[in-house]
């Protein structure tokens, strides 16, 4: 089975995915790391030198390849992955995958993202907390329609990593 974690940047997909995979004795794959390894370039450099459209194309190709392999994996996606190139539809159509939207509040996302902006080309230019909050709110409004197609939605605010993982295990 493939267990897919989706959600906004800095919602905890990779951290939670790693713990969940260990607990389930599944392989863990972070799609951005997978892209970086295969493209031999950090995501921020792919955006800079080849552009976002190229990144989205590769993101979709690698995602579709991984879900077609039918291995036991926990797969964390980049925040935009569910929203482009019918990727969410591909996930829902496999029948082999369970997807979960890790939902976090705008305040939580702002406080995490402001410390981790450099590696994230979409927000690296935003200087203030208010600017980040405004950007995230607008983005979530557009992306929510894709995120909410996930099989399950788990709210993460105020919960420890272990509590979130326990909740995920019981939804399986
Ligand atoms: C993106 C999120 C990033 C990465 C890229 C674009 C997005 O992944 O894929 O910078 O569009 O939200 P994380 O969600 O792991 O930060």
Structural write-up:
There is one protein chain. The chain is an alpha/beta fold and 172 residues long. It has a single domain, classed as Rossmann fold (3-Layer(aba) Sandwich), CATH 3.40.50. It is 53% helix and 14% strand. The chain has eight helices and five strands. α3 packs across α4 and α4 runs parallel beside α5. The longest helix is centred in the last third of the chain and has 19 residues. It starts with a strand and ends with a helix. The mean pLDDT is 96. The structure holds shikimate-3-phosphate. The site of shikimate-3-phosphate (S3P) has 9 residues, from loops.
Write the layout of secondary structure elements.
Layout: E1 2-6, H1 13-24, E2 27-30, H2 31-39, H3 43-50, H4 52-68, E3 73-76, H5 87-94, E4 97-103, H6 106-113, H7 129-147, E5 152-155, H8 161-171
Helix pairs in contact: 1-8, 2-4, 3-4, 4-5, 6-7
The gist of it:
With 172 residues, the protein is α/β, with parallel strands linked by helices.
């Amino acid at each position: 089975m493939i267990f897919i974690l989706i959600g906004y940047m800095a919602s905890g997909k990779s951290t939670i995915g790693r713990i969940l995979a260990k607990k389930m004795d599944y392989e863990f794959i972070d799609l951005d790391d997978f892209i970086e390894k295969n493209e031999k370039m950090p995501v921020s450099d792919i955006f800079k030198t080849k552009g976002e459209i190229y990144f989205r194309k590769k993101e979709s190709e690698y995602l579709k390849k991984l879900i077609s392999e039918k291995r036991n994996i926990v797969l964390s996606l980049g925040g935009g992955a569910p929203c482009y190139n019918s990727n969410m539809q591909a996930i829902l159509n496999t029948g082999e995958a369970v997807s979960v939207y890790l939902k976090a509040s705008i305040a939580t996302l702002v406080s995490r993202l402001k410390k981790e902006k450099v590696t994230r080309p979409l927000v690296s230019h935003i200087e203030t907390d208010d600017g980040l909050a405004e950007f995230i709110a607008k983005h979530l409004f557009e992306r929510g329609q894709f995120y909410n197609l996930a099989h399950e939605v788990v709210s993460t605010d105020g919960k420890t990593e272990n509590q979130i993982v326990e909740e995920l295990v019981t939804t399986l």
